[in-house]
Amino acid sequence: MSPPQKQPATSVRGEASEEIEVRGHIVDSLLLPKILDRILQLGGSFEILECVIGTRRVDPSRARILVRAESSVLLEEILGDLVEHGAAPVRPEDAKLVPADIAGAFPDGFHATTNQRTQVRLRGEWIAVDAQEMDCGIAVDVAAGTARCVAMTDVAVGMAIVVGHAGVRVIPEERPRAVNLFGFMNSNVSSEKPKAVSLHAVADSIRATRREGKKVLLVGGPAIIHTGSSRHLADLIRGGWIQTLFAGNALATHDIEQAFYDTSLGVSLTRGEATEHGHEHHLRAINTIRRLGGIAQAVEKGVLKSGIMYECIQKGVDVVLAGSIRDDGPLPEVITDTLKAQKAMRGALADVGFALLIATALHSIAVGNLLPAWVKVVCVDINPATVTKLSDRGTFQTIGMVTDVEPFLRSLAEELCIED
Amino acid sequence: MLSTPRVLMCPPTYYGIEYEINPWMDRRVGSDPARSRAQWEALRATLVDLGATIELIEPVRGLPDLVFTANAGLVHRDLFIGSRFRFGVRQGESPHFEKWASTHGFRVLLPPEGLHFEGAGDALFCGETLFAGYRFRSDARSHQWVGDTIGVEVLPLELVDPRFYHLDTCFCPLNAETALYYPGAFDDYGRSVLADRVRDLVEVSAEEAVTFTCNAVVVGRTVVLNEAAPKVARELADRGFATRPLPLGEFIKAGGSAKCLTLRLDGEEAADWKRATPAGS
User: Fold this and answer.
1) How crowded is residue A255: how many other Cβ atoms within 10 Å of its Cβ?
2) Position A190 confidence tier, pLDDT thresholds 50, 70, 90
């Protein structure tokens, strides 16, 4: 009699996947490498979810492996083969839920999230976790049958929080199979890559994101203004290529300074020299905006007539300006409460499919932390360390381009806006 | 001091080729009862001559392969892990072997239902490690269970040639560091594990392997094996082993030879545990 057919769990991308466990002396017997080789030979793919190696020779080791195949028929075939080599399908458990006993803190042993697609098992069903974000917990609405990532500060008393690893599975992003321009790039940071090719790839990716109806996010630092790239970014916004902008007080301030005085930090952007009393320009710009009540009001009254912020107001771009401890002013739109800023950024990230992080280390890392792993991230910076920092902090999907921002934005604007 | 070697055998009273469960068996060929009896008696006499005590299990009509006592189970100290045969035609042997073991001072344990395990046919100690064959008869998972149960390292090796369906047809530990093996019965992974874990591997040629040369019984420094393996005999002599070649053709017709006809009850020569003091004693 054959055992009852187990329905393979289907992942979010419609592929079939199943978790298996292999235990025993799987390293010295080469059973683990053999099983992994078999999966690939038979046309599947795998992800090692957990691997515990025994410490003494007699101690068994254990590996949990997620096996994936493009169809459930192929998956069954692969699993049938693996069983011969001692692999056993894992009998999954439901996620363990503990009600939060304190607001703003998780119960002990909470499941800490990654930025990868995650599912939790509830009453025998795998459900996708919404609002995926690294370094959060998972709150489950048992009645509604939904789950979402929740930040520590947003924990409310009574929230059902997932504890431990049982009943939680992570479905890592697959590397792109098709060879495309974006696929050719990888996260190795180097200043020695053909820039034109990389640039076409970024432009193609932005077009693809817009075609899919997703948003493009730009996170920028004030070097965009200092290097005279403001008009290129303004062109991109006017052309409808940017839907969301995250920045600090500085980018907005120097952009407005340029609009009012044609200087950035007092340096003339047309002549490249310091202007007399130029160091006051940004303060006067902030003061003017504060007197009018805000950037939107300045645009409405016809005081602010050009630049990035102007185009954002005209185009209805979703702007979040987050403050820092060294800000002058700041501009009225700047959110000075860090947690509120984080929340506003989180709220603006829904539907973002592509993020362009330009010339800002702190904002890039902050945004990287909030993004799920499937959002494509391109980080452009003159300093390779910015890109590596971003990857080191877990935003591993980042593609880095070490280049000056001005030629990058100029070429990108030319490439995207010429077609219009 | 080492104990007297004790070996379980079953007289070939009801031995014959009554079914075909491996590529060697052919009912049309059959076996010659008188010759089988003579070959079996010669093996027994040789083992006695080498100082072994032979224990006998009563033969049972209708169970022709009961003569292959190596497949009864796996012995580890006073524990007897009974076999769970893959083929129905051999499953009837299990109650007889278990009854024999439990009435001769062994604790009897069985692998969980649904797993296949064919005892010392597929599980051989070499040093501290249990080398275990899987695919044709035993399951890889049953070996993992055995390792957990007796607390030893188990290295499952996939058997890839159906003619060498049990591990003891292609691998024979001679002592803790030396073993005979036929490379063609294993895949690259298995060959690599053996090369890595057995210091002195004596390679048996395809020609000698098919005469069941690896299916040998080791008593002290003497190897009892089927005749027709002159190359292996020379290799063994170089290493200081004596050989006792015997005609065992009647049993090779069923896919077994000297080793298959015996079950070492006090631990094989290559098993480290027979020399070690049991933990806690």
Assistant:
1) 29
2) low
CA distance B131 to B211: 22
Peptide bond into A92 cis (omega under 30): no
Catalytic positions of B = 166, 260
Distance CA B256, CA B136 (A): 15
Which of chain B's residues have a Cβ under 8 Å away from the Cβ of A29?
Answer: 154-157, 189, 193
Residue-wise pLDDT for A17-62, tens only, equals 888 999 889 988 999 999 999 999 999 999 998 888 888 877 888 8
Reference B175, options B200, B194, B154; nearest CA is B200
- Dump pLDDT digits (tens) for A74-133: 988 898 889 889 888 887 789 999 999 999 999 999 999 988 889 999 988 889 999 999
Chains A and B form CB pairs within 8 A to the count of 57
Is residue A57 within 8 angstroms of chain B, CB to CB? yes
Residues A230 and A150 in one domain: no
CATH topology of domain B6-274: L-arginine/glycine Amidinotransferase; Chain A (3.75.10)
CB burial of residue A253 (10 Å; 0-12, 13-18, 19+) = buried
Tell the burial category of B90 from Cβ atoms under 10 Å away from its Cβ (0-12, 13-18, 19+).
buried
Residue ranges making up the domain that contains A320: 181-418
The alpha carbon of residue A57 is apart from the nearest alpha carbon of chain B, in Å, by 6
* Chain B residues touching residue A86 (CB < 8 angstroms): 134, 139-141, 143-144, 156
Flag whether the ipTM exceeds 0.90. Answer: no
